[in-house]
Amino acid sequence: MAWLGAIPRPATPPGKKAPADPPPSKSRLETMREQGIEPPDPFAEIPQIVEWLMEIGPIEASSAGRAPLSWGAINEWCIGSGADLAPWQRRLIRRLSVAFAAETQRAEDPDAPHPSAAAPIDRPAVGRAVRDALAAFKAPRA
After folding, report:
1. Helices then strands (H, E): number in the chain?
2. CA-to-CA distance for 12 and 77, rounded, in angstroms?
3. DSSP per residue, 8-25
4. Which tens digits make up the pLDDT trace of 49-84?
5. What's the CA gap between 83 and 50, in Å, rounded?
6. What angle do CA 61, 65, 68 make, to 5 degrees?
7. What sign results for the dihedral spanned by CA atoms 30, 73, 51, 96?
8. Count of C-beta atoms within a 10 Å radius of residue 74
9. 0.70 cut: is pTM over it?
């Protein structure tokens, strides 16, 4: 969701300064829709939690710009909405907000891949980990 809503910064050539006030641009979602591309729906294992996050607002404004939701904002929403969330649900909303804020910032890079893009696999490291696990499994137990 954050990747789709991000407005990519204009690319700045190496050795040049970025413009002080770059012209406003369109979000990836707006650009995709203009091109007739239907964006993928974000996958959520627990859609109710995501719905609550979006109702509260996934991030809040701070003196430093965008910030994850504060515990106070989450608690105030619970009181105002009458939602009696369990502590684990509040923690999950906070973690999702932290991830959303981080992704919003990362997604401003015009070359940022979609978050679901597969990360490169370090095959030698995976091989070592499997070898070590098998060796530990075969080792005599005390």
Report:
1. 6, 2
2. 40
3. PPPP--TTSPPPSSPPP-
4. 889 999 999 999 888 888 999 999 999 999 999 999
5. 14
6. 55
7. positive
8. 22
9. no
